[in-house]
Structures are given as C-alpha cells and as structure tokens.
C-alpha cells in the first residue's frame, strides 16, 4: 500500500512552489454572473428574517440569469444561462405564478425561460443518496446557477455545530468547482438580529457566513426593504432600497435608485447620451466591456446607464451585446 504525507513511517514531503512560481492573478475585469450582485461561479447566501422577500429575490436571480435581463431591473446580467431550482416551501403552481410575474416585469418571455424546477418532494443534503442525485442532475443539466431554498428544509443537522455544517457546505462547494455553477442558498437570519451585520445575523454556525463568495442580506425597516451586498473579491453595497411592486397576479421586487446629488445630476444623462451615440454608430452589437472602453467611464456607471436604457426601451440586449433599438 502506498504512503502519504501524513502516514507514519516514511512520510512524503508536501508539494511547494516559490511565491514567484504561483499562478499570477487575473488583473482583468471582475467576472460577474449578475453585475455587482453575484460573482461568476460564486457560492453564497441569500439571507434575511422571515417575510423579507428572500424567495422573491432568489426567483428574480433565476429569471435574470435565464433571460439575460437586469436583476431587480437594475443589475445587468452578462452571463445568461440555464438555472436549476429547488423550492422546498412553495407549491409548484405558486413558483410558476411568481416566475411568470417576474418574467413579465423583466419583459422576458416566460415560455422560453431555461429554468428547471426540481419536483422531488424532499431533498436532503445530509444524505449520500440525495447528494448523488443532485450531483447527477447538475452534471446533466449544467446550470449556470443552482438555487436551493431554504437551507432549513435541506437537512436534519444542527446548524449551530460547525462540524455538522462544514461537510454540507463542502459538498456544495465541490458542486460549484467541478461543474462550474454558481450556488445560491436561501437561509434565515436569527430573530432579533436586525441591527447586526448581515452575515453575523445568519442563523447557525459562522461557517455559513465565511463560506459565501457573494452574499445578499435582506432587512425590513417598517414598509421598506433594504438589501446589503457582500463579495469576497469585490466591493459591496450597503442598504440598497427595494420595493415590492404589484405585477398582477403577484408582487415583484425592484431596486429603487436614490436621486443623484444636484452637483452630479448631469453626469448620468451625459453617460446615457454617449452610450447611445456609440451604439448608434456601431454596425453590430457591442459587448459591455467594449461599451465601457469607448465611453471611458467606471464599470458601475456604464452598467447603470445600460440598465436604464434597457428599461426605457432605447437599447436591446442579445447574446452578442447591446445595440440601439431602431
């Protein structure tokens, strides 16, 4: 029998490299699944207290990735693709109704959405046979995003014990790495933790907060909803205001943009005009990076301007990029 570095007898040395031999970091543009909201192939938590709209937000991510439309009508989605969803607490007809309402708000065609809903009545990630079944499904469908809602219905472990939580999170991390899919896990915050930092307010072990590459936290302040965004490798956003808007027969979440300061009020307008001029001169759709390079503005400004132009019907988006609506 072969030996390893931790066996008794004659242990093998651990592999090493000099620092200069390590792979160089990618200094290019941050890779996003949903720009500013969820990193490409990220694992993470959609967290918040009960009745804060966590499922609405998770389904909005699903529609955005499946259709390539801005999430919450605000965050561009540069990497569209298939979505795999397990919703443990809602009946299939409720999920369909909500997805239809969100698709309508996003001006996406519901019938063509590449969203696959797991219809098994139970999915337990602490059982080997269920883990194998989910892995086989992910391997077959190759989703861009896997959404599991909520964590509490996916196991029978003690969420407060790190030794029980870590193997479950490691399984999901392995799914992400081997199948190159983003994983969004919906999870509850502790009651009475509204004034704590989002990750610290999550119920259970601190391993849940540490696990996430992109985390979204919802809080209710009276009739207002607030979204805090946290990334491992990019700047986040704190307390973005959201609103539940009527989109009969359901409600949909939507980001509320604060009015720009008077001193900067002309800058967004100028950015919109410059992007429209560039797209008007183009003979083919332009990718986001090409638009940004042409206007020489920050990625966040260009993303916001493109989302505004899409919402106003001035621009259309395809798999090849953006083009002016003729």
Note poorly predicted spans: 259-268
CATH class of the largest domain: Alpha Beta
Helix fraction?
25-40%
* Overall average pLDDT: 87
Number of domains: 2
As laid out across the biggest beta sheet, the strand order is 5-4-6-7-3-8-9-10-11
The DSSP helix count reads 8
What's the number of extended β-strand segments? 13
Q: Specify the CATH homologous superfamily of the largest domain.
A: P-loop containing nucleotide triphosphate hydrolases
Can you characterise this structure?
The chain has 326 residues and is an alpha/beta fold. It folds into two domains: 32-255, P-loop containing nucleotide triphosphate hydrolases (Rossmann fold, 3-Layer(aba) Sandwich); 262-324, Winged helix-like DNA-binding domain superfamily/Winged helix DNA-binding domain (Arc Repressor Mutant, subunit A). It is 31% helix and 22% strand. It contains eight helices and 13 strands. The chain has helices at 54-67, 92-105, 128-141, 162-179, 207-211, 266-281, 288-295, 299-311, and strands spanning 32-34, 38-39, 43-48, 83-87, 115-117, 145-149, 182-188, 214-221, 224-231, 237-247, 250-255, 315-318, 321-324. The strands form three sheets. The chain has a nine-stranded mixed beta sheet, with helices on both faces. A two-stranded antiparallel sheet has the order 1-2. Strands 12-13 form a two-stranded antiparallel ribbon. Helix 1 crosses helix 2 (92-105) and helix 6 crosses helix 8 (299-311). The longest helix is centred in the middle third of the chain and has 18 residues, at 162-179.
